[in-house]
Amino acid sequence: MMTNKIILEIRAGAGGDEAAIFAGDLIRMYQRYAAKNSWKFSPIDYHEAQQGGYKTFVAEIEGLSAYNSLKQESGVHRVQRIPKTEKSGRVHTSTASVAIMPIVEAQEVNINPGDLEISFFRSSGPGGQNVNKVETAVRILHKPSGVVVASQAGRSQSANREAAMSILRSKIYEAKIAKQNEELGNIRNEQIGTADRSEKIRTYNFPQDRITDHRIGKKWSNIETILEGNLEPIVKAFGKTQS
């Protein structure tokens, strides 16, 4: 699929505060990789953790071949390192889930307005604190499927509603494709999994300065450099397996 617009969704998994911090690391990695490729990176919805990092984060990325470059990022990412709050020097294992979803146009997905329950709330800051006096943030429930999406980064209700509808269309589209092709299962559920430590596509091992992708058996060093947005070696490795 050649598409230049995607939804990036990241959720902290097992590991408490360290999982949220790792989710933040992944967000910055993708944001910096987008900048290197002159892609547009637009946050849509987020829930920051009190100790730093993010519990959840959703953004839209727009740029040439964005989906083809990042589609392999979907799945559970695992980190092994000593948290800054760890006094005994013990290595902790934490996870964060990544989903990469193509943005689909309105005509590709038929959503009945009567199936939507739309509510408004104040956008939140660090730790979930309300920071706006006006309820510009939007939450949409698609009643038939139970899918809930939200947007709070825009400055107006209309902008947030449009962004939330974009996420909803992507998720409904995925469910539609999954239904047509049952052996693939539900695409998003496969991507997210349970975020358990045993469900992993990639491990970031800081003590050994090594990133391992368990699907293709490739390993890379210089974790800090890659987390700075230098994803090219990983993207190219997957490009070779698909060519």
What does this structure look like?
This protein is of the alpha+beta class. It has 2 domains: 5-104 and 187-242, Alpha-Beta Plaits, CATH 3.30.70; 106-183, Double Stranded RNA Binding Domain. 29% of the residues lie in helices and 30% in strands. The chain is built from 6 helices and 11 strands. An 8-stranded mixed beta sheet has the order 2-3-1-5-4-9-10-11, with helices on both faces. It has a 3-stranded antiparallel beta sheet with strand order 6-7-8, with helices on one face.
Give a short summary of the structure:
With 243 residues, the chain is an alpha+beta fold. It contains six helices and eleven strands. It is globular and about 55 Å long.
The level 1 CATH classification of the largest domain is Alpha Beta
- The helix/strand class is alpha+beta
Biggest sheet overview: 8 strands, mixed
What is the count of DSSP helices, taking H or I runs of 4+ residues? Answer: 6
H/E topology pattern: EHEEHEEEEEHHEEEHH
